[in-house]
Model the fold of this input.
Amino acid sequence: MATPAAPAPGFRRIGSFDVVAGAERVARFRAALALGGAGGAGRGEVPVTFPICWLAEPAVKSALLVALGGGGKVPVHLDQEMEYFAPLRIGQPYAMDVGLAGPDARGVARVRADLRDGAGARVASVCGSFVLAGGKEPRP
Amino acid sequence: MSRQELIGQRLPGLAIEAIGADAVGAYLAASGDDNPLHRDETLARGAGMAGLPVPGMLVMGQFSRALEAWPRCGAIARLAARFLRPVLFGEGVEISGRVVAADPASRRAVVRLTAAAAGKTVVMGEAEIELTAEF
Done:
């Protein structure tokens, strides 16, 4: 896989992770969203929100939790964006560069993942905000 | 179809009946999401919610479902969502979408998306899509 890219401005690097959209997992994900079968002509075969699965991988999640220092709090999703420069393909390996910004004074953190193919070309960018909630501090 | 006719066009509505524990469980298993917020009601209430919340990404996924059901939608180049309030277990969601911009040169359109539960907007979204036919 290509050398990890520099983190986007404002983000600190969490790590680079090798990911693949396996056919079976994609099928289960499609079924869980009631998306039916293949995306159809001209559509991506991997659902647009599928990269969220890669951010839930144990290695990625534990690296993020260590960096967040949540102290027993749980992340509450505030927003999410998925941008594609090329469709994701089933079975093709990608490098996912993960960065983190925050948490800020309100407890809001941003997680960003940039996906590159084997040639280093940017395929997708995924960015979401979370607030750490629970414990003694109420949700903003 | 002209650009003028395309702008303002509505996507076919999508109504999801009560999202129950089975549907949430299937999504959590498929996505790998093990956030206890979706399983521990005490924790959810401690985080300021009125009950167990459905994962926001499950609702966002319904935006892509609504887009895929629209024959004019080709590839989804960008999909964004803002989670305004949690959808709770057992609540139904209605997805609607409307074209707000279209560019003949790039054959792309911007679709504004809304998810509503109990008559209130719970998730707002926006998609940039490639259209399946020239206009």
Notes: The domain at 12-133 of chain A is CATH 3.10.129.10 (Thiol Ester Dehydrase; Chain A). The interface with chain B takes residues 25, 28-29, 31-36, 39-44, 47-49, 52-53, 56-57, 74-84, 87, 133-135, 138-139 of chain A (CB under 8 Å). The longest strand of chain A covers residues 122-133. The first helix of chain A runs from residue 23 to 32.
